[in-house]
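Entry type: protein chain
Record version: 2
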Amino acid sequence: MTEIPPNLPIDPSELSLVDQYRQSRNTSVLTIMFTDIQGFTRLTEERGDAFSNEMRRAHDSILAPIIERDGAGRVIKHIGDAVMAVFAEPSAAAARALEIQDALGKYNAQHPGQPPLLVRIGLHMGQVTVEDKMSLDVFGRHVNRASRVEGLAAGGHVYLTYSVFDSARGWMAGRQGEVAWVSHGRYKVKGIDEPLEIFEAYRPGAAKPQAPQDARKETRLPRLLPAAGLVLAGALAALAFLAFGRTTVTFEDLGVRTDTTDVMLDHKARLQFEGEPGDHLRECLTPIKPGRHLIYYDVSYVTRYYAPITVKRGGNILRPQFEYEGLPGVEVNAAYEPRHKNDQTNANTTDYATYDNNGGRHDHKADLSLTLSPSPGNPVPAGKGVKKHKTLFWTLTWSVALDGKAISADKLIVEYDPESTEEANVKKDLWGDERHRYVLNYILTGVSCQGEIQAQYAEYKD
């Protein structure tokens, strides 16, 4: 295991790489993955540097492609046998973490004569920008939490903080029988003041969950007493406010880390709270009028969790039940190869819902299709009778239908020099209303093109 320092150095180039990925995914919240190989130091001492380096190369060849496939994640740095990566979607991070463990299990089965390659994985999620600018200090704190969570796990296990679990549990719930999870409780870790609530994601039948070993678990009894006092105080306060006709709202087990995630009211106001993140009861400092309301928080520009609440006059103690809503998209990857048919097409049909500023629900059905077709430009001499194609022409053909009505259908031809050292990254608005919009995004690198049509919430418009 690589010992990660409490304040892991992150150089400007690495921070810039993170920010480029963040901007390409149009999000201010990232999920950070930390991994390392269990027993790597001992393995090096027992089998030598040559063998351990071979194991590390095998490790890298498994992890990096899984993390970065389809642009889901980005490897930021290697620290010895440890890897730090970032994801825009917590569900993607959890899915790829489990896929890594699956792939390592197959690798170990195929190499019975060598020590098993066991990797521990930790995931933590948080907001990494301040006023849409990357903050090294803020990002560093989240990196530290992710590394500490990873350090609690044993090889072959995937640990998540509450923020990742809460955002990815909809994805996990939709894969019952394939993915399961368990809460191990709250643990004190080095360099972090408040205990971290640790969850584990695993494959039923393939792995048995294991609580952190040699870690200090927070006892529940001391927390129950203050919580009981808070409940009593909250009840007395509610009665007092009723007597004076005031309306207050106290949230019980809000389930959202408000230090890293904004909770919005009716698409208009950001809620502010008394107390600390993780407190059992938190009074809302933002005035909320009696009546029905909708609160929500974003995981990214395409993922949102909504909860309806009803506020009555006087004192209210509410426990909102958040439900997942995600916007549809379709992605295509293609590469030009001479004398091959290179056209690539992908389509997607998705039912989803959006909500207006009055809390009204709007159900939609989207039908998306995107085709990437490369063709070479006119050949030019390259010496000794050899000819090469100076440019490639990429034709992007798409159609977007919403609720049975075509809202965008067209094609775009883009010329690109495959020898260019600059990546072409272009976004094009296709359609929008007051709640969401559809965007075409394509990236050209060398002889490859990655295209995507993605619905995004209107609040994230550039």
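Comment: The first strand starts at residue 29 and ends at 37.
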